[in-house]
Write a structure and sequence with these properties.
about 300 residues; alpha/beta; ornithine cyclodeaminase, domain 1; Rossmann fold; six-stranded mixed sheet; 14 strands; about 35% helix; globular
């Protein structure tokens, strides 16, 4: 069994290859059972959430990701997410690879947002606003740059120090990047707003978004989490990574319960977007929203890319 540490996993997953790999498998499809969700109690009285996410292509590959989510880790100076990925032969069950799941998760998440934007963001989108300053947020500009000619990047975070540090890191990558303090104004100025946080209450308000904006919501993968208010969805074209988002995300559950959204308002998924069957943005002035909760198919596509790149 091969072992891919963070550096090896990152080297095998450049966005120029990862975004097309996701599109290919989403268009093709594979077996993706519902994830297992467990609340793991801790003697201190707290807990963390553990997700077990399997997926397989019959006869080819079978993979399982385990990801632990502990928002309280921030107070300990630790990342809030930790994951591992195991890839097996799809015919024999023989273990093929153990892959660093933190790198795999972060890169496939940013790649999924970029894939959605390739169909939903305006062709002339140039200004990206990132909300959040964590591992996934840091990857969004290079991921988006594979599908749109991003020229300007703004970043807002609860910690101005972290936002400024992230802006400097993007400047070193060649982006015209800056930290911003006025979130309403930053949202109004951006072509694409991408939110990657562990927020429990809305950070983005629909009233701040101008016509033609694409809103990308990465956090809120549990019912208790929320990044966008109800107005973000009123009059917008809604897409999700999979229909599981309608059952998992606080961003969607609340508006559904309040009648702001109906399940039949859902315009499509990453599968329909990836098949290039006409799904996607319909006009320059349309507001679009992509809500992801994470999908085991994307994990499997990334893991296959890691292993097959090593063979090449």
């Amino acid at each position: 069994m091969q072992i891919f540490d963070p550096a090896a996993a990152q080297a095998a997953l450049p966005f120029e290859r990862l975004v097309p790999a996701l599109q290919s498998l989403f268009a093709q499809g594979c077996e993706v059972p519902a994830r297992h969700v467990h609340e793991v109690s801790v003697p201190s009285g707290t807990s963390f959430t553990s997700l077990v996410m399997p997926a397989w292509i019959p006869g080819r590959y079978y993979g399982i990701k385990t990801i632990n989510i502990a928002p309280g880790n921030a107070a300990l100076g630790l990342p809030g997410l930790h994951a591992t990925y195991l890839l097996f032969d799809g015919s024999t069950g023989v273990p093929l690879a153990l892959i660093d799941g933190d790198v795999l998760t972060a890169r496939r998440t940013a790649a999924a947002s970029a894939l959605a934007a390739s169909r939903l963001a305006r062709e002339d989108a140039r200004h990206l606003l990132v909300i959040g300053a964590g591992r996934i947020a840091a990857l969004l500009p290079p991921a988006y740059r594979t599908v749109r000619a991003i020229e300007q990047v703004s970043v807002w975070a609860r910690s101005p120090h972290k936002a400024q540090a992230l802006a400097r890191s993007w400047q070193a990558q060649g982006f015209a990047a800056r930290a911003v303090a006025d979130l309403p104004t930053a949202c109004a100025e951006a072509d694409i707003v991408s939110c990657a946080t562990l927020a429990a209450s809305p950070l983005v308000h629909g009233a701040w978004l101008r016509p033609g904006t694409h809103l990308d919501l990465i956090g809120s993968f549990t019912p208790a989490m929320r990044e966008a208010d109800d107005d973000c969805f009123r009059g917008a074209a809604l897409y999700v990574d999979s229909e599981e988002a309608l059952k998992k995300s606080g961003d969607l559950l609340g508006p559904l319960q309040r009648g702001v959204l109906r399940a039949e308002d859902l315009r499509g998924t990453l599968a329909t977007l990836s098949r290039e069957d006409g799904a996607g943005r319909r006009s320059a002035g349309e507001r679009t929203v992509f809500k992801s909760v994470g999908n085991a198919l994307a994990d499997l596509a990334a893991a296959i890319l890691v292993v097959e790149a090593s063979k090449a």
